[in-house]
Amino acid sequence: MPKSSHKTSKVAIEVNNLTVAYDGTNVLEDVSFTLKSGSMAAVIGPNGSGKTTLIKALLGLVPLKSGHVTLLGQNIHEARSSIGYVPQRFDFDKGFPITVIEFLNLARHSHATAERIDESIKEVGLTPAVLNKRIGTLSGGQLQRVLIAQAILHNPSILVLDEPSTGIDVAGERAFYDVIKHLNEEHNTTVLLVSHDISMVMSKVDEVICVNKELLCIGPPKKALNEKTLRTLFGEDAAMFEHGSHPHKH
Predict the structure, then answer these.
(1) How far is the C-alpha of 207 from the C-alpha of 202, rounded, in Å?
(2) What secondary structure does DSSP assign to 132-153, as a single string?
(3) CA of 150: how far to CAs of 18, 81, 103, 135, in Å?
């Protein structure tokens, strides 16, 4: 996977005074932050806090009430080809007879070479043998890795993942985050992911973005995730986070 052509860009993501409303009610209000190129950041917050809405706003998938988003120094639509995206859920008919290789070629109308497809599969820790398996036969962890392989086929400068470890067991989850960290460190890919796993956030990411309808904190996790911030975000559940436990997922 070639190193990003945007490596010299100082700012990968810039959000200014972002407000998003559904049915007249603000679900995100006056959110502003920047992420440097090559950083790995996690968005955290309680259920219903606007995390997924923030991701969708960055990708141009929901209208903005006010504010604006700049990606790689461009507007959302100009930068779209430089963004890879792995959604929170990928719903499909498991009986549908489509193989991984067919999915990778169809999902993004890809003109990627067979060599590039092999590369992307290896990057996410799978062997080329998986290419001939049906999508519906894959484990949760394998499917998520295939979705990442699809997202990085065209060497995106920014990779956005919405709760990527949902449905994966704890051991698989840690291996999965190692794949994401590899992409970040080896290819200078800017990674932005939504996560509920605070212990992973503390150990893996450079920046944490705390939201609960508004921006509550941003910065290195050990500095940003102090006791006050955690209690503001998670209330009584904060005690579990503070002691490094893996609480139930909301």
Answers:
(1) 9
(2) GSBGGGS-HHHHHHHHHHHHTT
(3) 29, 13, 8, 13
Looking from the CA of 211 toward its CB, the CA atoms found within 13 Å total 27
User: Model confidence over 193-236: pLDDT tens digits?
Assistant: 998 778 778 888 999 999 999 999 999 998 988 888 888 888 76
Whole-structure pTM value: 0.83
- Domains of the chain plus CATH, in order, are 11-242 (3.40.50.300)
Phi, psi dihedrals of residue 148, rounded to the nearest 5°: -70, -40
Walk across the sheet containing 190-194 and list its strands: 83-86, 158-162, 190-194, 40-44, 207-211, 215-219
Distance CA 226, CA 223 (A): 6
Longest Cα separation, the chain: 51
| CA-angle at 134, arms to 178 and 141, nearest 5° | 20
Residues in the chain: 250
What gap in Å lies between CA 141 and CA 208, rounded to an integer?
24
